[in-house]
Structures are given as structure tokens and as C-alpha cells.
Design brief:
This protein is of the alpha+beta class and about 450 residues long. It is about 40% helix and about 20% strand. It is built from 16 helices and 16 strands. α1 (about 20-35) runs antiparallel to α5 and α5 (about 140-155) packs parallel to α9 (about 230-245). Bound molecules: histidyl-adenosine monophosphate. Histidyl-adenosine monophosphate binds near residues 126, 282 and 284.
């Protein structure tokens, strides 16, 4: 196939017929985050390369192998964001959010770019929903963001996810751990890949998440970080666990979780599924108490997580989770002839300004073709306007599902439509045996 009609490897389109599913997931996540006090932040898709080198860490797979980096026409080294945290910290500092009351809680829906080998659940352009909470060292915050992620999964109806947590300590206990790793890996230097040989000197922990099969096999038997935690980190981890228990959140401690990005300290966690293949980590996050400082800000203990929206969608499909139906037009206007078309334009304008989805045939086809089109669009109501209807000022409004027709005035169309559609909705509710709470229809929201 010609390149111009083929999407770049590792990228995919979200088509109009499925976009409502993405919109639903994103709106649900943003809504729940808001209930936990998070506000949305939007940052640019590209940043200075140095931000990720310093933020994510220049010995990580992401920075060493996966970034989309290029020089712009002004010879600046630019990188498409491989993740959302570094850009959020940059924005937090640049825009003075650090001077406002802490903690500052932000959330985002964002596209990310990593040059990885594409497979199910692994793309080169993917999307994340994430949260970042700046300025708290309390273990309550660790437990709260985990509860927030879980609340999103629960609301979406996902139940096949296990929560795995770990603590990877602070720089003080990390020094001891690095020494133990160096001792262990030094004996196996010749078997490690070229990149891991370099990591052995600079950051031995990164060998633990190398994707090469030989390195992963060696890493599987490496010392675990939990045995090297200092008292403060151990105590913090115990508190996080007790706060999770208090919220009835089940977890397993997995001492092998170290996460693939350099900024993490203390608590790290992942939500993992077995139903979507090898790329089963749907959500990952943790604390990054040193990152804000690393990027030039004041000491600001912080934490966050991000969930991969493509993996979330795979999981929801695998579990047959329900999605709301996509929106359909409330009204289709079939107009025949010039006068009728002018009337249709007027009605469509009034209907839309009252919030009703209204569509007409831009190609002005025959009545049969227009009716077929209305059917394809699954419009709820249809009205046919010809010369005769314009003259008499009335037409028949047809409920496309029941076939029921009601005479309606074209002069006061919107009011008539509102009454007819509301009474039919109420009739439908009665047919379905649901009890109607009329007070809710007329409530002002001011009552005690
Ligand atoms: P991450 O673990 O690199 O963490 O990515 C988070 C999630 O993004 C993963 O769990 C996965 O669902 C999804 N993901 C990652 N790479 C891909 C890919 N190539 N294709 C599809 N989905 C992918 C972070 O990005 C951190 N910034 C999370 C965080 C926020 N930590 C603290 N705050």
C-alpha cells in the first residue's frame, strides 16, 4: 500500500464509530480525579530533550532507546514526550504552581511517543491518563492515589486487575542496594548486553528492567530492594499498606517492581492484568520525592501514576465491559424543494441552539434516499417537509423506533418537539417498568 494511505508503524486511528468509547473512559477518569481534588493540566506534546534526560534518567530504556528526538529548525534538540510526569513538573515550576497551597493536584489525558517494538498493547503513539500530586510526603497520599486509580477501574467495571506494590527506598538506602547489585552483576558482566554493561557502572538498578531475555534472566535472581530499606522508608511503606487495608484495597507486595524510570523513590505500584497478553501492566506509578529538585525546584516530595488508555480499552473489551451508546441525532429533517430547505435550515438552527442534535441531507437527495440516510444515522425522530407542509405550517413528526407519528406546528417546532419527545421518553420508561420520579424532572437543585 502506498505510504500516504498507511499510518506510521505503531500508530493507529481512533475511528468515529469507536471514539465514544475513548471519550467515555477519559471523561470517567477526569471526573473521578476531580472528585479527589485534581485539576486538568495540558502541556505541549514536545519539550526540550534535556528535560527527559534529566527527569526520566539518561540510563533508562526510554531515554537511551525509545525517544523520538530531533533538531528543530532553530537547532534545538526537541523530544516528543515519552511520558507525562517530566512535562508536568516543568510546568509546575515554570508557572509558579509551586508557590500555591500544597499539595497541588493535577491530572492529564495525553498522547505519548516511544520507539518500542509494536505488539498488542504496545504502540509507538499511545495515550495515558495520569495524575501528579506535588508537595506531600504523607503516606496518606500514596494510599489516596492508589485508591483513585482503583476507583477508575471499578467505575469502568474492570475487575480483573491485581495491585502490586513495593518500596524502592530513598537515595540513602538506595546506595546500599546499588552496592549489592553491583556485586551481583559484576560476576555476570560478560553475559549482560552492551547497554547493561554501561548501566553496571552508572545505575545498576536499570539492569533490572532490561528487556533483553538474557539480562532479564540474570536480573530475576538479583538481590531485592526491600531488604535494603532504611527505617524511615520501611515505616512509610508500612503506613501505606495499613492505609490501603483501611480502604479494603487488596494488594500483593512484589519486591521485583522497580519501574523503568529513574525518578521513583519509596512507594511504587502497578495494576496488572492477565487477560491482555504480555503487556499486562495497565497502570504504573509511585513516589518521586527528588524529581522537582532535580529539575531545579525546591525540595517537593511528590507522587503520581499513569494508565495506558489503549491497554485499558483492550482489557475492557476482553471483559465485555459496557460502554454508553454513541450519541445519535435527535432529529433528521427531510426537506424537499427550495422553500422546504429554507424552513429546514431555520428549524435546524433553533433545535441546535436548544441542544437537540439535528441533521439534514446536505446532498438534497430524493425522499427515499433521505429516509435511508436518516435510518443509517439512527436518528430518533424524522420530519418530512415539502411545499405542502410549508404552506399549511404543520408536518408529521415520526418516532423512528415506534413508527408513531404526531402532527406538529412548524412555527413552534422546538416547543412541540420538546413536549412530544419528553412524553415519549416517559412512556418508554413506563413500558420498561421503571418508576418515574417526577420531582427530579422539575427540581431546582435549591431544596434542602
Ligand atoms: P510507565 O509505566 O512508563 O509510567 O507508563 C504508564 C502506563 O502507560 C503503562 O502502565 C502502560 O499502561 C502505558 N504504556 C507505556 N508504554 C506504552 C506503550 N508503548 N504502548 C501502550 N501503552 C504504554 C509512566 O509513564 C509514568 N510517567 C507514570 C507516573 C506518573 N509515575 C508517576 N507519575
Amino acid at each position: 500500500m502506498a505510504l500516504v494511505t498507511k499510518a506510521v508503524k505503531g500508530t493507529k486511528d481512533i475511528l468515529p464509530k469507536e471514539v465514544h468509547k475513548n471519550q467515555y473512559i477519559e471523561a470517567t477518569a477526569l471526573d473521578i480525579a476531580e472528585k479527589f481534588g485534581y485539576k486538568e493540566l495540558r502541556t505541549p506534546v514536545f519539550e526540550h530533550t534535556e528535560l527527559f534526560q534529566r527527569g526520566v534518567g539518561d540510563t533508562t530504556d526510554v531515554v537511551q532507546k525509545e525517544m523520538y528526538t530531533f533538531d528543530d529548525k532553530g537547532s534545538r534538540s526537541i523530544t516528543l514526550r515519552p511520558e507525562g510526569t517530566a512535562g508536568a513538573v516543568r510546568s509546575y515550576l515554570e508557572n509558579g504552581l509551586c508557590n500555591e497551597t500544597l499539595p497541588q493536584k493535577i491530572c492529564y489525558v495525553t498522547s505519548c511517543y516511544r520507539y518500542e517494538k509494536p505488539q498488542a498493547g504496545r504502540l509507538r503513539e499511545f495515550h495515558q491518563f495520569g495524575v501528579e500530586c506535588f508537595g506531600t510526603q504523607s503516606p496518606l497520599a500514596d494510599a489516596e492515589i492508589i485508591a483513585l486509580a482503583k476507583s477508575i477501574f471499578d467505575t469502568l467495571g474492570i475487575n480483573d486487575l491485581s495491585l502490586e506494590i513495593n518500596s524502592i527506598g530513598c537515595p540513602a538506602c538506595r546506595a546500599e542496594y546499588h552496592k549489592a547489585l553491583k556485586d551481583y552483576f559484576s560476576g555476570k558482566k560478560n553475559e549482560l548486553c552492551h547497554t547493561c554493561n554501561d548501566r553496571l557502572d552508572r545505575n545498576p538498578m536499570r539492569i533490572l528492567d532490561c528487556k533483553s531475555p538474557v539480562c532479564s534472566e540474570i536480573a530475576a535472581k538479583a538481590p531485592v530492594v526491600t531488604n535494603y530499606l532504611c527505617d524511615e522508608c520501611r515505616e512509610h511503606f508500612e503506613k501505606v499498606k495499613s492505609f490501603l487495608k483501611a480502604q479494603d484495597i487488596e494488594y500483593t507486595v512484589n519486591p521485583k517492581i522497580v519501574r523503568g524510570l529513574d525518578y521513583y523513590t519509596k512507594t511504587v505500584f502497578e495494576f496488572v492484568s492477565n487477560s491482555i497478553g504480555a503487556q499486562g501492566t495497565v497502570c504504573g506509578g509511585g513516589r518521586y520525592d527528588g524529581l522537582v529538585e532535580e529539575l531545579g525546584g525546591p525540595h517537593t516530595p511528590s507522587l503520581g501514576f499513569a494508565m495506558g488508555l489503549e491497554r485499558l480499552m483492550l482489557l475492557m473489551d476482553a471483559q465485555n465491559c459496557t460502554f454508553p451508546e454513541p450519541a445519535v441525532p435527535d432529529l433528521f429533517i427531510t426537506a424537499l424543494g427550495e422553500k422546504a430547505t429554507l424552513k429546514a435550515l431555520e428549524i435546524a438552527k433553533d433545535m441546535r441552539s436548544e441542544g437537540f442534535g439535528t441533521v439534514m441531507d446536505l446532498n438534497q437527495r430524493s425522499i427515499r434516499a433521505q429516509m435511508k440516510y436518516a435510518d443509517k444515522l439512527s436518528a430518533k425522530f424524522n420530519i418530512v417537509i415539502g411545499d405542502n407542509e410549508v404552506e399549511t405550517g404543520t408536518a408529521k413528526l415520526k418516532n423512528m423506533q415506534s413508527g408513531e407519528e404526531t402532527e406538529i406546528s412548524l412555527q413552534t417546532f422546538v416547543n412541540g418537539f420538546y413536549t412530544i419527545s419528553l412524553s415519549q421518553q416517559l412512556a418508554d420508561l413506563e413500558i420498561n417498568g421503571e418508576e418515574i420520579d417526577f420531582t427530579s424532572l422539575f427540581s431546582t437543585g435549591n431544596e434542602e
